[in-house]
Amino acid sequence: MVSRELRCLFIHVPKAAGNSIMQSLGTRWAHHKDLARYRSELGDEQLRDLFKITFVRNPWDRVLSEYNFQRKKHQRADTVRLFLHREDGSERTFSEWVKYALSHPEAHSPKDWGGRPSDHIHRMSPQYDWISLNGQIAVDFVGKIERLQHDFDAVCGRLKIPKIRLPRKNRKFHWHYSRYYDDETRDLVGDYYQSDIEAFGYAFGA
């Protein structure tokens, strides 16, 4: 999302409070795009002039949120519930879903999930990849879902706008995410999102 008025660029990583942030900044939903895609569209000069922000989330929590999101999607003719169904049409358990989604991350095209990313990005990509250029994080501010309001207050300060109380969109109540994992799926997510864990200081159970 690009706001010319605020001179900022928000990288909307899937399942990382993007809808709440865009609503609070006065913009509507936009397709998921990574930073490299924005650079290809805007060019380096325009990109430099924008305050580039994103929010990230504990990878284990984010994966569980993605699974729950796919399960609760409203069934319409054009609905695609990513990775959710077995060949016989039955629904995968969370454990099965994790194994399938992380071994077939490109099974769905971007149009299935509202994305217009670079060729190397898919919905299950590490958050690190969404906000990097040439292998290095290239945004100006990385907030965390775990301290969402605090970090968004900091964004408001940088943008020189009044502090805004964020709405909680797409919230689902459940036990702590760690209760849904077994050893295998915990390790699968840990290995797959190692770049996120190292860059943003995440750990299982935190």
CATH class: Alpha Beta
Percentage of residues in helical conformation: 25-40%
Per CATH, which architecture? Answer: 3-Layer(aba) Sandwich
CATH fold-level label? Rossmann fold
Trace the largest sheet across and list its strands: 1-2-3-6
Q: Strand tally, please? A: 6
Task: Provide the low-confidence segments as ranges.
Answer: none
Question: Beta fraction of the residues?
Answer: 5-15%
Averaged pLDDT, please?
Answer: 93
What does the overall shape look like? globular
Q: Which structural category do the helix and sheet elements fall into? A: alpha/beta
Topology order in helix (H) and strand (E) letters: EEHHHEHHHEEEHHH
> How many angstroms does the end-to-end distance come to?
30 Å
Global Rg: 17 Å
Descriptive terms for the model:
10% strand; four-stranded mixed beta sheet; 37% helix; single chain; 206 residues; alpha/beta
Please explain how this structure is put together.
The protein is globular, with a radius of gyration of 17 Å. A hairpin with a 2-residue loop joins strand 4 and strand 5. Helices cover 37% and strands 10% of the residues. The two termini are 30 Å apart. It has helices at residues 18-24, 35-42, 44-48, 59-72, 94-103, 127-130, 148-159, 183-192, 194-200, and strands spanning 2-3, 8-11, 51-56, 132-133, 136-137, 141-144. With 206 residues, the chain is α/β, with parallel strands linked by helices. The longest helix is centred in the first third of the chain and has 14 residues, at 59-72. The relative contact order is 0.19. The strands form two sheets. Strands 1-2-3-6 form a four-stranded mixed beta sheet, covered by helices on one side. It has a two-stranded antiparallel ribbon with strand order 4-5. The chain has a single domain, classed as Rossmann fold (3-Layer(aba) Sandwich), CATH 3.40.50. The chain has nine helices and six strands, in the order E-E-H-H-H-E-H-H-H-E-E-E-H-H-H. Helix 5 packs parallel to helix 8.
